[in-house]
Amino acid sequence: MKITILGSGTSQGVPVIACDCHVCTSNDPKDNRLRSSIMISYKGLNYVVDAGPDFRQQMLREQVKTLSGVLFTHEHKDHLAGLDDVRAFNFREKRDMQVFCTNRVEEALRREYSYVFAKERYPGIPSINVNRINKDTEIELEKGLKVTPIEVMHYRLPVLGFRVGDFAYITDAKTVSEEERLKLKGTKVLVVNALHKSKHISHFNLEEALAFIEDISPERAYITHISHLFGRHEEISKLLPKNVFPAYDGLSLEIDY
Question: Exposed, middle or buried, 188 (CB in 10 Å: 0-12/13-18/19+)?
Fold first, then answer.
């Protein structure tokens, strides 16, 4: 199984519009961060977690030719604003796009993409099939790929992370209950959000993310959803333990499954 980091930035991305800070003006390509998303590749199938505003750019950059489904973490626009572009795969593969999401996310999709759900379908619009999930749903995708949702809290908003075999992906987390942490035990590779060093109302900061990583005890961990306020990639790397790394766009991880 291969995991590709499609985007490792915050809701604003990096560089931030109109910002001249030393991160946003960095020449290091690892400091260019699209909105947070990953792709899970398994036996010729690809599944994306979140389709944010940079979805089209991410698919083109990674030269993705087939996509079987999209799993949504939550309803904020930086995680679902690119759904319209799944129509390219509808046209190419002549099938609906499978979408996995909670009731809350489905409500947002129906509101933001009302034309997709209209009774009279306009030519050329995306075609999706919604599969409703929650924190207690065991998801079985094609070819035996099993996904376990993990509920985390983004301040007061429930968000789903996902575990696939020995890999887990958590984004937009501020708190995680002990019950949900148990689902992560034994994870070998963990990707988790760490916004920056300062306290934040709805995201782990560095200290909180490192405490969470220590509790889960993976062999390796990567931090994502990184703000320009955190610093440059090389600066962040110096702040991390030896088994923790800053994720970057295009990073590819091979995971046993």
Answer: middle
pLDDT in tens, 68-100: 999 999 999 999 999 999 999 999 999 999 999
- Other CB atoms within 10 A of residue 62 CB: 16
Region of 88 on the Ramachandran plot (φ > 0 left; ψ -120 to 50 alpha; else beta):
alpha
DSSP 44: T
Cα separation values, 129 from 33, 116, 200, 241, Å: 30, 10, 36, 42
Please give the CATH number for the structural domain made up of 2-254. 3.60.15.10
- Domain ranges in the chain are 2-254
Four-CA torsion 130, 84, 30, 256, nearest 10 degrees: 30
Give one word for 110, left, alpha or beta, with left for phi > 0 and alpha for psi -120 to 50.
alpha
